[in-house]
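Our collaborator T.R. sent over the components below with a one-line note: 'Predict the complex.' Nothing else. No constraints on interfaces, no templates requested, no preferences about which chain binds where. So this is a plain run: every listed entity goes in together, and whatever single assembly comes back becomes the starting point for the next discussion.
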Amino acid sequence: MLGERISFRRGPMVDMPLLLGVVAILTLGLVNLYSATSVYIDDNSRARLADIYVSQIYWIVVGALFAILVAAIDYRHFERIAPVLYVGGMVSLGLVFILGRDIRGSSRWIQLGSFAFQPSEFMKILLILMIAKFIHNDSRTEPRSLLDLAPAAALTIFPVAAVMAQPDLGTSLIYALTVFSMLAMMRVRVLSVVTLIGSAAVSLPLAWMYVMRDYQKHRITSFLNPEADKTGTGWHALQSQTAIGNGQLTGEGFMQGTQNQFGFLPEQYSDFPFAVFSEDWGFVGTVVLIGLYGFVCIWAIHIASQAKDRFGAALAVGVGAMLFWHAVFNIGMAAGVLPVVGITLPLFSYGGSSVVTMLIGLGLLMNVSMRR
Amino acid sequence: MSFLVQRSDVGEFRQRYRWLVLVAVVAFGILIGRLAQLQLVEGDVHRAQARRNIVRERSLATTRGVIRDAYGRVLAANRPSYAVHITPSVIDMETTWPRVLKVVSLDEFERAALEKKIQEIKALPKDDKRRGQQILLKVDVDRDVVAFLETHERELDGVEVTPSPVRYYPYGELGAHAVGYMREVDAEALEHLDDRGYRAGDHIGAVGIERRWESYLRGQRGWRKIVRGLSHRENTAEVEAKYLEEPRRLEPVPGRDISLTIDIDLVASVERGMRGQLAGAVVVVDVRTGRILAAVSKPSFDPNVVSGGNGVKAVRDAFRRLNADPLKPTLDKTISAAYPPGSTYKPFTALAALADRLTDPDREVDCHGGYEYGKRFFRCTGVHRKVNLHSAIVQSCNTYFYELGSRVSIDRLAAIGLDFGFGVKTGIGVNPEARGRMPTRSWYTRRYKEAFRGGFTLLSAIGQGATTVTVLQLALSYAALANGGTLYQPQVVRSIETSDGTVVQDFPPRVRRMVELDQDHLAMVKNALTGVVNERGGTAYKERIAGVDMAGKSGTAQVSHVTPRGVDPDKVWYFNRDHAWFAGYSPAKAPEIAVVVIIEHGGGGGKNAAPVAFRVVRDWDKMKEKRLAVPAPSPPAKHGNP
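Returned assembly:
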């Protein structure tokens, strides 16, 4: 029975294009992280930051082990335990409020021994699994009404609300967009879509007035008018655009970007690694990187189209969507076309929880690919 | 296997994959488009901004020009000192500011005020011009603080150490009014001086030569570019070569040096002569050129203190004291104040009467101690009995001149005054000039409701009434008497030089006007002026010093009995005393210098003012003898004396 459960009988054992794409992004990400934090090498007070690429390697190894693990177990097992995982995830999100560590005005972390982890990151995968299960179970072919989608909406609302309360606008946005992308796979009545759009139009101003925190609103307003706030968030956005533009066609060269080297990109290893990369490698580099993200996202859709069941397809789309929205939002905010909401660049930004989450997601994607 | 999901219908998704791919392609396509815009289309703009971010301009201080006297002695120079400026829009309040505070000691109030100011400027909108402004952190910082800040200048972004030399006046109070002093540029002035490159903490000439010749003395600041935040790197030079565009340095231009016509030794001699007097003024002018050899206004002040040499607090204290002093130490009494000339004006009345043939020099007037005119009796200083023109001047008989005043029209008196340069500004261009007043009939008509009275002319004839002159005007007019009628433009700046001594501009003497005079009449008047000092009965005869060859006229100007504001009633008697004048030239036969002395509320002119003039002339003679061995730098031949 074990032999059947861990089954590698059909097709190629490993999805080589996916693996190569991910390894390429990881490699560029590490190289870039080194460049991004090299600015701290001789800075006595922040020299620790110059070494975070080493911890990033550890996290990649950990993430890769998790990825192999989740790839090895037939993904259909996850369909079965998805509700358990989902509830577990929600519990850990709840724990954040009790045990959370306050970093820069929001508590997102739980301290476990010597390292901290971010439940909201792992929740992304758990939510994808849960929604994939919902899609899997709702296999009717006629268009659905909004009421039919209500359970999915409810499943999403809880983590979104919990994360908003931390407060973490970026992550809740990722939850919502990922779920939306997955649900977009299903046929929905035209009237329902119209209703949805209408209610969104109503609820956004309400959210602005009653839900969003001042600093979140500030980020949006400073995005709309970055010049007005030259020292805060808007300043980061402007400096990031200057860094990207400074890259020109071929870039300033590895570890040569002045915007980063002279400290104009304060969150360069978490929020703005793309700016560092663009400045070092120029337009040529950014096209290659976006090409890689684009390839992995489209490859995820390809895997979904090859999946043998609705769960696998939805799971593949979910992971692809998660990756897609992260990449689009992070690059978009670095390039000044989207507000700065603190969304990481997958496999580029420093952060254990983020890297491990991404790699687990990609492991699941590999899983689906291997079992089509 | 039943617990695992079975193959289910995925057909529903089929048509959606294409759309998902399309969304992904479009989204990434838009991003690439945006990147192309940033990196390819606007790349140059962003690179320029990136360079601006890392490059800072540090200013290189210039040195203010030195002011010298006629013999090259330094009257104003510079003492090294350093100021710290910060650029609020650039400075990092979390890292840089605490480090700066650690080395630059500020008290709690200063710190709070500065922090408030910094936050204010940081809060200004980006396009506000004031955003780029620098504010002064501290002046006169210690050497070791300077050393620290300079070593770490590349880490301490927005902090700048600027050498701001403090002005130093070796002769202190001597000639302080003419040379002037400096003041710190205040915030208000800074707003319109900003374009000319002044910054907070800079000093600007406040009065005197320092002010009028500010643009020459000042020089121009230079700058050099540095790459900020580099100190922890080894290859500073390499990095700077890579990022800094040429030119990387602009050398400062030192200010021009200025040589004055003033002889500081003579000023010192005047100062000695004026010892024991509370207030007054002396001008010594070269009758052959119109050059000012000495200008002294008493009481004086120490320009070192008021220029900030002893700190800002000392400046405030000094001005509080100076402004409260009823003797007005800050007023340049040689130029900025006008006094009734009294009897020193009599030679001009005499010349007017002689020119118009209204009197015969030998005609005698009998002085009974005054002159009856209309219903009024105009008093004389004494009873002179029979006096002619010569003895009237020598003894300073008012009666004689009242009588002349009844013959001459007031407009004629004003006209000759204007001829000799009274009633108009001389254009010396050092300090604000008083014009003085030569009253005319129309002036009186405008000034007083009642009809013009002949008595006004009588008062004008003896230099009283509404007539006022400045000490400088009187000196120039006596110089004109001495040299035969050439009224010179007064000159205090002799030449302008570069810091290495090359003469850039040399100012020749300039004649303002040749006064039309009958030389016989002039000779008569000058003969009388010689008599004032040298004839028994002359008003300055008793005070004469053996060996001093001088001609001149004393004057005792009545003061209108109006108590100046803020004067202690016990001291009013002083302010009601007459001004003592003496105006003359030396030597009497071949005049070289004209000397005018006024002692405010000094009493009689012959007794009090004349001795000062005599002593100055005596010292001048001594100095001249000494210089015969080492000849003074004579003016270039082309500007030869007339």
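Summary for T.R.: Chain A has a mean pLDDT of 85.
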